[in-house]
Amino acid sequence: MEENNIENNDEQIQENENGKNWLTALILCWFLGFLGVHRLYVGKLGSGFLIAYLTIVAACILSMDLYLGLIAFVLVGAFVTNDFLIILAKKFKDCYGNEIAGEDF
């Protein structure tokens, strides 16, 4: 009986080993989503920097042409909104493929 409890505890430790909390990722996505900070937080460096780069490009395009700039911001916003909804559903994964569910408050 005790062996099963020890195995269950080991599985829980491995499951939460990444140390990332879904609520932290959600707050980062809400306030700093257009800079990709929520993706950097979970270790997805490539896509995090890509979102930041696309936001800067959208701002540059916006300074030249209003309509194209707004279209660029809508595309980046759709990507960030998608991430926000996935984080809210607690299905967002870190760079290792582990869900970042964390603890509930």
- The number of distinct helices, counting runs of at least 4 residues, comes to 5
Structural class by sheet pairing and helices: mainly alpha
- Can you tell me the number of structural domains? 1
Question: Any low-confidence stretches, pLDDT <50, length ≥5?
Answer: none
Radius of gyration, CA atoms, in whole angstroms: 18 Å
Please characterize this protein's 3D structure.
By secondary structure, the protein is mostly helical. The protein has one domain. The chain is built from five helices and no strands. The chain has helices spanning 2-15, 22-32, 37-41, 45-64, 66-88. Helix 4 runs antiparallel to helix 5. The two termini are 30 Å apart.
Main attributes?
105 residues, elongated, 0% strand, 5 helices
Short description:
This protein has helices at residues 2-15, 22-32, 37-41, 45-64, 66-88. By secondary structure, the chain is mostly helical.
